[in-house]
Amino acid sequence: MFVLVSLFIEIAISYWIIRTIGNRIQFISQEAEKIANREFSNVPLAGAYKDELQPIYQFLNKIRESFKEITDNANNVASGNYFVDFVPKSEKDVLGNSLRMMTSSLRKKTQENEKHNWMTNGQNFLNEKLRGDKTESVLAKDVITFLSNYLNANVGAIYLCDDSECSLSVFGKYGFISENRSSERFALNEGLIGQVAAEQKRIFLTDVEEGSLRILSGILDTKPKQILIVPFVFEGKTQGVIELGKLDSFSPSEIEFIESSVQSIGISFNSARARRKIQELLEQTRIQSEELQTQQEELRQMNEELEEQTQVLRQQQEELKVSNEELEEQTHILEMKNKEVELAKSDIEQKQNSWNFLVNINLSFWQTCLMNSELL
């Protein structure tokens, strides 16, 4: 009887053990199937017994945690967050290393796309500022304001070369107040501005000295941490210089952007200068045309006055001609009268001579008679 009871107990215990192990194996199989089907829960597996199956629970939990990390990384990638690095379990972690390489590649590509979009948008915005028939002063103010805002610069200035290309003067400012007029005008090779203009090479200052470009506001008076000075050139001739200062550091993308923008800036300022010269020539031509019209009007008036004087002179000549003709006629008449007078005078003289002769004869006769009478 005791043997039967013992056998029954052993059979019952064996059944219970087999059933318990079977249930646990079935549970492990179900969880493994869930993992295989990529079904995860946040509740870790916990074994009620610390036996030979306990390590399996632990490994399943590690697998779940590993897959959860992979899933979280995949979710980050799916949401566009490529800046969370995935840490592989080891160098032999093929999936982990692949995920890390994929995330790194996507992050790099995303950064390149963001940089490209930022550069492209900046160029488009800058082109909008450069568009239109603007004067050099308006263009300089628009460009330096845009560059300072887009590059997060705290202070900036644009210097333009004069027509003689011997000096540069400030045409546009952003957050910049000059302490004296000498800081707004530079000759070639004078100071950093003149040096950049002469050499046509950028200067990047990271150790700014006192007395350089300063950032001023109602509560702030300090020097920038970095200063970027870049020339803009057109067909080998320096058009001007851009100076930007920041309290923090310029990023490589910001430096690349300003260097890629100076060509279009140089073209725009050359066009603005050409328009100004054309306007000056047109204004000079207009003034000369007005002066010529004035001179032509004065000449016309002089011609009219000369014509009037010519008419008066012609009339005077006509009158003089008539007077001369009348004078000649009167002279002719006078000559005729003179001839008549001469003839009359000659006739009178002849008659006078004849009379004198007769008188003399008579006188002689009477004298002779008188003498004869006295003699008698």
From TrEMBL:
<protein>
    <submittedName>
        <fullName>GAF domain protein</fullName>
    </submittedName>
</protein>
<dbReference type="GO" id="GO:0007165">
    <property type="term" value="P:signal transduction"/>
</dbReference>
<feature type="coiled-coil region">
    <location>
        <begin position="275"/>
        <end position="354"/>
    </location>
</feature>
<dbReference type="InterPro" id="IPR029016">
    <property type="entry name" value="GAF-like_dom_sf"/>
</dbReference>
<dbReference type="InterPro" id="IPR003018">
    <property type="entry name" value="GAF"/>
</dbReference>
<feature type="domain" description="HAMP">
    <location>
        <begin position="19"/>
        <end position="72"/>
    </location>
</feature>
<keyword id="KW-0175">Coiled coil</keyword>
<dbReference type="GO" id="GO:0016020">
    <property type="term" value="C:membrane"/>
</dbReference>
<dbReference type="Pfam" id="PF13185">
    <property type="entry name" value="GAF_2"/>
</dbReference>
<dbReference type="InterPro" id="IPR003660">
    <property type="entry name" value="HAMP_dom"/>
</dbReference>
